[in-house]
Amino acid sequence: MESGACLEKRSRIEVKNVRNYVIKGNICYSISGSEISITENGYAVCEENRCSGVYQELPEMYEKLPLYDYSGKIVIPGLTDLHVHAPQYAFRGLAMDLQLIDWLNTYTFAEEAKYQNLEYAEKAYEIFVQDLKESATARACIFGTIHTDATLLLMDKLEKSGIKAYVGKVNMDRNCPEYLCEESAEKAAGETERWLMSAAKYEHVKPILTPRFTPCCSDELFEKLSAL
What is the pTM of this model? Predict the structure, then answer.
């Protein structure tokens, strides 16, 4: 159970510079694939930023720890989103009637091309990260775009937000619009290596190699990414 995940108006508790603390509330979490445990007006004890136990009555040994009182609220573990495209957030829910290729060509590729402009990326990613922070999601695996600097900007914002994430600079060098197609497998791999080196500074946000999918990536590009 990830600590610090109390939802009040779908937002997390702000726990800064505190590694040991107690959360009081209606503690709800899964104990198996088919069972939910609910401890009403219970206590979740967090040690070293991880939940070490849930109790109906707070043990005496924890009574001096800082207490975050969310009585009457539901406290759940932070959720994990295994697949989310940050640049697609701007048009979420649109054109669900289209087939994948038509949807990509009409909406997705045109939107992602805008992230070459860092001023646009700054505004769009700020909205995405803030909304993600105020949701139930505490961890995520996130696609960026092919643009190295914009992807690093996204990672900067996620690092500051406290969300733990894997983020990918997208790679694609074929079967996509010319305005969004990387010039060659060699240059794509070179930019990816530059991005990996620049992303080594983050504590909570880590890079993950992200070929978009097979139709958009040449065999040569896959081989170069594999070498990285």
Answer: 0.83
Contacts of 228 (CB under 8 A, 6+ apart): 189, 192, 193, 196, 209
- CB–CB of 164/204 below 8 Å? yes
Q: What angle do CA 18, 70, 62 make, to 5 degrees?
A: 50
> 96: which DSSP letter?
T
Tens digit of each residue's pLDDT (9 = 90 or more) over 63-107: 999 999 999 999 999 899 999 999 999 998 888 889 988 999 899
Residue 39: φ, ψ to 5°: -115, 100
To 5 degrees, how large is the angle CA 162–CA 93–CA 157?
20
- Inter-residue contact 173 to 128 (CB < 8 Å): no
Query: Residue 176 in contact with residue 211, Cβ under 8 Å?
Result: no
Phi, psi for residue 88 in degrees, rounded to 5:
-85, -5
DSSP secondary structure code for residue 106 in this structure = I
pLDDT in tens, 167-188: 999 999 999 999 999 999 999 9
Cα→Cα distances 97→89, 93, 94, 110, 213, Å: 18, 10, 9, 18, 22
How much of the chain is helix, strand and coil, in % rounded to 5?
40, 30, 35
Contact between residue 199 and residue 169 where contact means Cβ atoms under 8 Å apart: no
Distance (Å, rounded) from C-alpha 203 to C-alpha 205? Answer: 6
CB 152 within 8 A of CB 199: yes
Contacts of 208 (CB under 8 A, 6+ apart): 141, 166, 167, 168
